[in-house]
Design goal:
Largest sheet of chain B: none
Shape of chain A: elongated
Order of helices and strands of chain B: HHHHHHHHHHHHHHH
Structural class of chain A: alpha+beta
Number of helices of chain A: 3
Helix content of chain B: 55-70%
Oligomer: heterodimer
Order of helices and strands of chain A: HHHEE
Structural class of chain B: mainly alpha
Distance between the termini of chain A: 29 Å
Number of helices of chain B: 15
Strand content of chain A: 15-25%
Radius of gyration of chain A: 17 Å
Shape of chain B: globular
Chain lengths: ~90, ~325
């Protein structure tokens, strides 16, 4: 999102909201659908997706007393590994 | 019935049912329609990705994770790209006709059904502004939104159906404002609920909430001066937001304070629109401010605009 221009950011803002929601563990029921959608978007008949891995990348924000801000190093957490079936791509 | 009871009933009836000019609700209808159109335009590039048969979240999953009876037209239309696209165009057409006030009642019903449907089809991309539009849309169906500033009114005049006859400048007939009052109450509740939510949150109470908000790269919009992002300023900003939400939720009903609060609320939302990238949220909320403006003041403002733009003064409605 932060790499988009101002106009695209406004149009794609729903994706920010959506990505916030799907990263929550309580919403794990949504992950297979998301994996299937990514598989469909990234497959061609000659090169179908076989596995989709959803990874949450995160960096802690720690408020400092002087107000300065420096993000913590990035970490990651695997949410889902999904084996794509042929019917998922139809 | 005691005096207190009688005065309460009178005040209640006066508040909800004493006839007044429908211009505020008509103006709200226009802004509301434009906001629905803007919402649709922003959604259009990803319409099928959100609502199509091969969307991010399938209809079946949505019904599993959010069970129960819901208003969702996607459950009755055939699950094909063509039908989902047709849904978009019907929705957009109804929103345009609602905006111009043509067949207002019918189109307000279509817009409400379609808006509710897209929310129920994918609840995970909606924000508070969308919810407010949906709730306001419900009451708009019952309002006299087409009684002024509309093609419906022009049609009635042309057909000679106004009570005052077919005069070219037939006065706008007063209407019962109960539906408008419900939308006003909805706005008041929105602010009060936001206040209640924030006072239960440690991050808002200790003043760090805005620190996180303004350091999220994905939320940033236009540049904010560094001195405004200092911890003291952000703390005061957070506490001021809580206080303002309480005032807008409660004191907006005090006539003498109303315009001052609306002005502060306007500045507050414009600041958020400038600094944070949350599509249309601020405008969705601000749209209902119109309903708090006295019809006589709206009339005066319109006269002033006409006088300065065309040099013509309008007879008061």
């Amino acid at each position: 999102m932060e790499q988009l221009g101002l106009t695209d950011r406004y149009f794609k803002e729903r994706y920010r909201k959506f990505s916030e929601v799907i990263q929550i563990d309580d919403n794990d029921a949504l992950w297979p659908d998301v994996a299937r959608h990514i598989a469909r978007r990234n497959s061609t008949p000659s090169n179908p997706a076989k596995t989709i891995i959803l990874i949450r990348w995160y960096s802690a924000m720690i408020p400092r007393p002087d107000g300065s801000y420096q993000s913590e190093p990035w970490d990651r957490h695997v949410l889902l590994g999904y084996g794509v079936r042929p019917e998922d791509l139809q | 019935m005691s005096w207190t009871q009688r005065s309460f009933v009178e005040a209640w009836n006066n508040f909800f049912f004493a006839k007044q000019s429908p211009v505020p609700i008509a103006l709200f209808r226009i802004v509301y329609g434009l906001l629905v159109i803007a919402t649709l335009v922003l959604l259009r590039p990803d319409w099928l990705a959100w609502f199509g048969p091969h969307s991010w979240i399938s209809l079946q999953t949505m019904q599993t994770v959010e069970p129960g009876t819901r208003i969702n037209l996607f459950t009755i239309i055939p699950p094909t790209d063509a039908w989902v696209n047709a849904f978009f165009w019907v929705f957009l057409g109804a929103a345009i006709m609602l905006t111009v006030g043509l067949f207002t009642r019918l189109n307000s019903v279509i817009v409400f059904l379609c808006l509710t449907s897209i929310h129920q089809r994918n609840l995970y991309i909606t924000h508070g502004g969308d919810t407010f539009l949906r709730l306001a849309g419900f009451f708009l169906m019952f309002s006299a939104a087409g009684a002024a500033l509309s093609f419906d009114r022009l049609l009635r005049i042309w057909r000679g159906k106004t009570k005052s006859g077919a005069a070219q400048h037939a006065p706008i007939e007063p209407q019962r404002p109960w539906a408008q009052r419900m939308i006003q109450i909805q706005l008041s509740l929105l602010y009060f609920a936001a206040f209640c939510h924030k006072v239960k949150s440690p991050a808002w109470l200790n003043g760090t909430a805005l620190y996180y908000v303004y350091h999220l790269d994905s939320l940033r919009r236009f540049p904010v001066p560094a001195w405004l992002l200092g911890p003291t300023m952000l703390k005061w900003g957070g506490w001021s937001a809580i206080a303002l939400e309480l005032c807008l939720g409660v004191l907006i009903w005090v006539k003498d304070l109303r315009y001052s609060l609306l002005a502060i609320g306007l500045l507050f939302h414009l600041w958020l629109e400038y600094s944070l990238n949350i599509a249309l949220f601020q405008w969705d909320v601000l749209s209902a401010y119109i309903l708090f403006i006295d019809p006589a003041d709206l009339s005066r403002a319109w006269n002033w605009i006409r006088l300065h733009v065309t040099g013509r003064r309008v007879k008061p409605a």
